[in-house]
Amino acid sequence: MDKKEEFYDKLKIKLEETTTFPTKYMFKFIVPSKEDKTEAIKNMFNHLGAVITTKSSKNGKYTSLTILVMMQNVNEIIQKYEEVDSVEGVISL
Fold it and tell me: Of 6, 54, 74, 82, which residue is most buried, by most CB within 10 angstroms?
């Protein structure tokens, strides 16, 4: 099992134990400050009615995204992490 699979498995167990669905879930990501990367992630959540805030790092090299969105179940959360993982250079927090 690779590290990403292990991360998703642990996250799924933790969420199932501690969260009642549906719930508002907060995703946090860091990406290199390139407009296309930030926009790609925003577009993955826009159709869900998400509240998205961005903040540039002090030197402007990176952008953090905080996304608050209603999720129906743990599988939706895992799917979003996997989808965002396709963006090169993204770090999930």
Answer: 74
Token digits of residue 25 = 């879930």
CA distance 21 to 62: 32
pLDDT in tens, 32-49: 998 899 999 999 998 899
- Cα separation, 72 vs 23, whole angstroms: 7
Q: Does domain 3-92 have CATH number 3.30.70.260?
A: yes
Checking if the pLDDT of 1 tops 90, the result is no
Predicted pLDDT at 3: 84
- Residue 12 burial by Cβ neighbours in a 10 Å radius (0-12, 13-18, 19+): middle
Whole-structure pTM over 0.85, yes or no? yes
How much of the chain is in helix, strand and coil states, percent to nearest 5? 40, 30, 30
Domain regions of the chain by residue span = 3-92
